[in-house]
Request: fold
Amino acid sequence: MTREKYKKAISKNIVLKLLLLILIITIIISSYFMINRYKNHEESEALKNFMVDNNVIENTVIGEPEETNIPKTDRMIKLEALQLENSDIVGWLEISGSNISYPVLQGTDNDFYMTHNYKKEYSSEGSLFLDKDYNWEVPSTNLLIYGHNNRGTNEMFCQLLNYKDESYYKDHKKIRFTTVKEDAEYEIISVFLSRVYYKNEKDVFRYYYFINANNEDEFNYYIENSKKESLYDTGVSAEYGDQLLTLSTCEFSRQDGRLAVVAKKIKNN
Reply:
């Protein structure tokens, strides 16, 4: 073998080894994410079963009872039990007839629970989480809850995109949001598409900044724009003083697209 052929053989061998190494690393990374997704899915299903299992309530240990005239439902008591695992759990969100039934977390920022589950473990699925600026002491006007549109696994807020179809809305008009203090039902006001706007863009509706209305004008501005942008007319509106709930997720028909579902509280269960 000539010196030139020897060098080519060595180079080819190195390239093959590098390709093999890259393949092995890719398989390891892919396996990790698949296992992680499977684990998170199993934990989500276990949590959902916990919330609907009537036999669990007898063995659920909670803290001291609060002074309130609102009787505690099974879901409220179970939520208190979950808070013993993580005090960042502030509620449970459910849309009947969909797979959206998850705990809602609130952290000190709006980043952590994008990549962590309710146990604070890393998760590519993330969690549903309430905007960090919502103040429970006031309380704030609008419960703004974010979640990933995980198209690959159909988890979190993926099925929220079904609301682009008016017929789906007509069969799923209500949202249930449970906290340790109330088990409430919300009626959908509007469903609209938006995007994350650049700072220099003027006269645009940045719904994702609205947490609390300082006055009636701010409240009306949010409702009027939500109705104006809605994909269809729900025939439902809200008045100043109503508690609002806004669900927000990514929508991929445009760059930095978003879909928002706005609802108002109508009753406690």
